[in-house]
Amino acid sequence: MVTHQELVSCVGWTTAEELYSCSDDHQIVKWNLLTGETSQIVKLPDDIYPIDLHWFPKSLGIKKQTQAEIFVLTSSDGKFHLISKLGRVEKSVEAHSGAVLAGRWNYEGTALVTVGEDGQIKIWSKTGMLRSTLAHQGTPVYSVAWGPDSEKVLYTAGKQLIIKPLQPNAKILQWKAHDGIILKVDWNSVNDLILSAGEDCKYKVWDSYGRPLYSSQPHEHPITSVAWAPDGELFAVGSFHTLRLCDKTGWSYALEKPNTGSIFNIAWSVDGTQIAGACGNGHVVFAHVVEQRWEWKNFQVTLTKRRTMQVRNVLNDAVDLLEFRDRVIKASLNYAHLVVSTSLQCYVFSTKNWNTPLIFDLKEGTVSLILQAERHFLLVDGGGIYLYSYEGRFLSSPKFPGMRTDILNAQTVSLSNDTIAIKDKADEKIIFLFEASTGKPMGDGKFLSHKNEVLEIALDQKGLTNDRKIAFIDKNRDLYITSVKRFGKEEQIIKLGTMVHTLAWSDTCNILCGLQDTRFTVWYYPNTVYVDRDILPKTLYERDASEFSKNPHIVSFVGNQVTIRRADGSLVHISISPYPAILHEYVSSSKWEDAVRLCRFVKEQTMWACLAAMAVANQDMTTAEIAYAAIGEIDKVQYINSIKNLPSKESKMAHILMFSGNIQEAEIVLLQAGLVYQAIQININLYNWERALELAVKYKTHVDTVLAYRQKFLETFGFLNFAFHQLPFLFQGNKHRGQWPEVGYFVTLQILGSLLALKEVPRLGRLHHLEPKKADPLPLKFLPELKLQIDWEKIKAKIEMEITKERERSSGSQPTKSTGLKH
């Protein structure tokens, strides 16, 4: 068995069972973990002391290589070497003055970055041709990492970290990160977070803007290595006789004290299940990630060994052992199913029967993410996204141009019973929406576009496909909600909250929870924003979130229990009221009387407010009237009563839409039904004068009605405001003088003359800002001349005739499908 005799400087995996290591004894050794054998690949010349090793990336878009075939080795002689898997040195390149301290391929394998003792950062082609010198500084650069998009480079500069884009003249980001020299950095492509380790004996986590997210306590010795797991959920830290496994938020899962000396380099296997460390005493240390836990309701699943899981039912303390042929890579427990992916197969267990799993072979690649919904589950690997039923039937595989599955995680992909949502990495303002059953784009094929970059997305889990909603947090930490069904018209994206750091939908009903800056908030009925935004605050539950400490994260929302992980790794369970979920269930079954009885029993304003919004959304105005009365919204009760007395179902529908703020839809309903006057009247009621006049002119009816109501409105404002606002109408009137001869040039000229007399010409462009001049008698002097001759008797007769016609038409039509309005 071949072993190293000197310090091991670097290690790198080719497959999940094969590792290469380099040492100061000039050997490159291959380790086979299946057989336990080691073999010397090549003995380097005595003047080459290896420092860093990085395998050429395996994943090139969708096309996959089975294993890495070439690696870059940097050395103390100022060169880097391209070496094949068989140990042949393909090329050696003079790169730096002094040692080449690190070398890294970008994610596409199209470029190589090297850094050295000479303080230079250089970019090379994959064949070893120099492209550019990115930077030159006076101190050695000990470590380097590519940004997720391969368009930026992160490197060390003493105690500083620097992010430099490849584009010339682009803005450079630089900040002081440690109190000692920084020895190692890593930048994860999935979570976009940065790790740094330094001689100040600390390791730290940063976001890509250089903002600190976590700083460890000082260790006894300098931190010599850090490395992200491929999926970005974990990272490993190496120091003198120390190996630590940490969550991405910084807290520690495990601490081991192996007798290794300093661990100079850490490499994760491709599947993220094991790590290897290059040790100062000539050893290579191997570690496997075990004791992972998954919980759902009364079940707790623990990965006890690489191929063994233990299932415990906490209700009766029953224990089942699950054995797998290959090592477990990913698992997910939700919706009464446990889904486990191994290196070659996928196992689907039902919580009702742990003995007979459904097993099918995986297509290709290593599964990096499992997401579950009630009816099906999603597997993500380097080759694509695959949706399966719990019976193991393949359903669909959504795709879009430029899709990179290797950087997807639970925050950027979401799954419901009918929809798959994926945040685009190339343009982070875009969310792609797909039908789950077919994998085709949702609706008319348009993607969802937001004004800012999106950080996290989540689909609601219950209800009809047409009502499916997606909630998302953008880079300003604002929470938004919108519909996923998109046909032609632009769907509203409505803000629900600010400073939201994490969110989750309930698995049993469409209740949303989130952690805001200082409080934990539950939106019992988020659709209230589409129905009546005024009562949204009354539908919320809020409590102080200071007990969760800094940067907590919502792990799950099952039933009425929310699980939150604090920054120190501890779990906190919060129970919310079960009554809103029962209310959702009653409303989805149209059990309105039961819903009212429940609210009367609970006697909470929150429940009544939710019921009011639910009733309006479902057009049950009788229940809405009861609920609004219960929360003291008397004006809305009166409006609902007025809706009930409307003569036609189209008018009722239009006014329900108006109640919810959907003015355009209300107008369309009326115009399609031929109720032109009613469409004009709703614009008059809303003081939308231009639209009211536009409709009147277009349909050649009720022009005098619009002008009459307009004049009546303006008379209360005084002459100057009257003059300014009336001018556009008078000019339009001049175009259509044949329709109302009483509006003519004379009146228009009188107004202009009056304004001239008042010396207000310089301010004509700002007249709508003027306050009425109560002390000035001049406006009142001119007012009689400016008044239009309005025949109110004639107008009222026309309106009465329109209402009579509508009533006769409604009573003459055959009964059709109910709109949910009850008397």
UniProtKB/TrEMBL annotation:
Listed GO biological process terms: cilium assembly
SUPFAM superfamilies, alphabetized: WD40 repeat-like
Ranges occupied by WD repeats: 93-125, 175-207
UniProt domain IFT80/172/WDR35 TPR: residue ranges: 607-718
Chief location bin: cytoplasm
The keyword Repeat appears for this protein: yes
UniProt KW keywords: Cell projection, Cilium, Cytoplasm, Cytoskeleton, Repeat, WD repeat
InterPro entries: Beta-prop_IFT80_2nd, TPR_IFT80_172_dom, WD40/YVTN_repeat-like_dom_sf, WD40_repeat_dom_sf, WD40_rpt
Residue ranges of domain IFT80 second beta-propeller in the record: 291-579
Region (Disordered), start-end ranges: 803-823
GO CC field: axoneme; centrosome; intraciliary transport particle B
Pfam (any one): Beta-prop_IFT80_2nd
Localization terms from the record: Cytoplasm, Cytoskeleton, Cilium axoneme; Cytoplasm, Cytoskeleton, Cilium basal body
Self-association and partners: Component of the IFT complex B, at least composed of IFT20, IFT22, IFT25, IFT27, IFT46, IFT52, TRAF3IP1/IFT54, IFT57, IFT74, IFT80, IFT81, and IFT88. Interacts with IFT88. Interacts with IFT57 and IFT70B.
Cited PANTHER family: INTRAFLAGELLAR TRANSPORT PROTEIN 80 HOMOLOG, OUTER SEGMENT 5
Stated role: Component of the intraflagellar transport (IFT) complex B, which is essential for the development and maintenance of motile and sensory cilia.
Name this protein carries in UniProt: Intraflagellar transport protein 80 homolog
Organism: Bos mutus
